[in-house]
Amino acid sequence: MAGVGAYHFSLLLTAALLALLLLLGLSLQLGWRRDLARWPHHALFFAVCAGVLLSAGLGWRAGARGWALLPALALLLLMPRTRPGRADHWRLALACALALGLGVWGAW
After folding, report:
1. Which listed site, 34, 57, 79, 81, has its alpha carbon 20 to 30 Å from 89?
2. pLDDT by residue (tens digit) across 51-69?
C-alpha cells in the first residue's frame, strides 16, 4: 500500500481545514467577525472540497476505502444552495462535519 503516509496526511489536513472552516463560520454566524472574514471562509470552503476530493483519490490509489469520503463531498457541494446566516446553512455544515468524520473513520 504505497502512498499511505500521504493519504493519512491529506485526511488529517482536510479535517483540520474543516475545523477551521467551522470555527470561522461560527464566528460569522454569531456576528463576531463580519468585516474581513467572508473571503477566507469561502477560500477555506474550496480548500476543504479540494482536500476531500484529493483524499478520496489518494485513498483509492493506496487501496484504502477512499469512497467513504464521497458522502461528505456531496454534502459540501450542496452548501451553496443554502443561505448564510440561516439555520439550514449551519445544520448542513454540521452534517458535513459528521459525514467527514465518519468518512475519515471509515477510510482510515
Report:
1. 57
2. 999 999 999 988 889 899 9
- Tell me the CA distances in angstroms from 65 to 30, 60, 85, one per residue in order: 37, 6, 35
Long-range contacts of 9-12 (CB under 8 A, 24+ apart): 10/51, 10/54, 10/55, 10/58, 11/55, 11/59, 11/104, 11/107, 11/108
Neighbouring CB atoms inside 10 A of 69's CB total 27
Cell output for 101:
468524520
| Distance from C-alpha of 16 to C-alpha of 12, rounded to nearest angstrom | 6
Q: Which residue has the higher pLDDT, 15 or 30?
A: 15
| H or E element in which residue 90 lies | helix 87-107
Q: Which residue has the cell 504505497?
A: 2
pLDDT band for 1, please (50, 70, 90 cuts): very low
CA distance 21 to 93: 9
